[in-house]
Write a structure and sequence with these properties.
By secondary structure, this protein is of the alpha/beta class. The protein has helices spanning about 20-30, 55-70, 105-110, 115-130, 140-150, 190-200, 230-240, 255-260, 270-275, 290-300, 305-320, 325-339, and strands at about 5-10, 35-40, 75, 80-85, 90, 95-100, 135, 155-160, 175-180, 205-210, 220-225, 240-245, 265-270, 285. The protein contains twelve helices and 14 strands.
Amino acid sequence: MGYKKVLLVAERDTITGKLKSGPSLRLKYGVDGYRFVIKEDPFSQSRYVRNLSFNSMTTLYMLLKALLQRAVTVNGDFDFVHSFFWTFYRYRKPWIHENDQSPSQLIFNYFKMNNGFGQKVVEMIANLLNGSKAVITWTNYSAKGFVDDGVEQSLVHMIPLPMEVRCKKKEHRGIKVLFVGRDYYRKGGDIALKVMMNVLQKHSEVTFTYVGKATIPEHPRIKHYEGVSRKQLEDLYRNSDVLLYPSRDEAYGLAALEALSYGIPVIASNLPSLREIVEDSVDGYIAKSEEDYAQKLEEIIDSPEKLETLSKMACERVKIKHDPRKIVDELKKIYESIS
């Protein structure tokens, strides 16, 4: 039986050096009848985006990257292209694009360019995307964003990431709280630390693990890792009870989804993308303020029954919403429509 070749254009993670999680998950589960050929985007390894901190230099770099990519024509022995994130080469074959957020959500929320120039950039990217065969995104929030930005509604498809359920956690004493965030301010690292210093004073059975670059106060029940490998992160998930996720801006929230797949309830900020991953009072909580994070966390600490219920629902909802078999079938429909 023959297969069709798909050129998968993807960026590498600036810390691990491996393909980013979105394309990695699509690659992992594949699509029957299609074979992926990978083209890595070399621009993603620049030191200007290595720490995922969004500033004027990052903005300039991303704009220059887009202009330089449009000067490069991509052709070859493949049937069509499946590109990710901000890889806008000039493709000579049919092209579908996948991103976790719309142009305006990146330009306005992350780069804070909510002005005439930012709007022109959004319009430029939307026009490029209207030349594709399909635009895939992971939430209804981002799908609406693409349409609002000017991408034709018929092109936009919401297909969540596939995620296996891995809910057998290691037995341990006490309550272990986890925070994962590279970008200290955007991910709410300061909020997580404030909440945990408060909670640690009241609850001697609680420990806290912080993953990410930050200045962490010395405390016998706080562990700090500036960076961890994929295997180390998976081990932290297996050993944790709650994920604290107080992001100020969030395109998707993959760490929240991964935590839920391990049966870890998530206390997340009140952002549209996170409200689609975490269902308030079902598999975690949506916090409205710093005080709310501490209150919700203490509710879980004080009630083992609540923790168990939230954990079970986390596993169940991931199993239903992110079943790899169902999601691959949805992706295959898109492939078949253009090949």
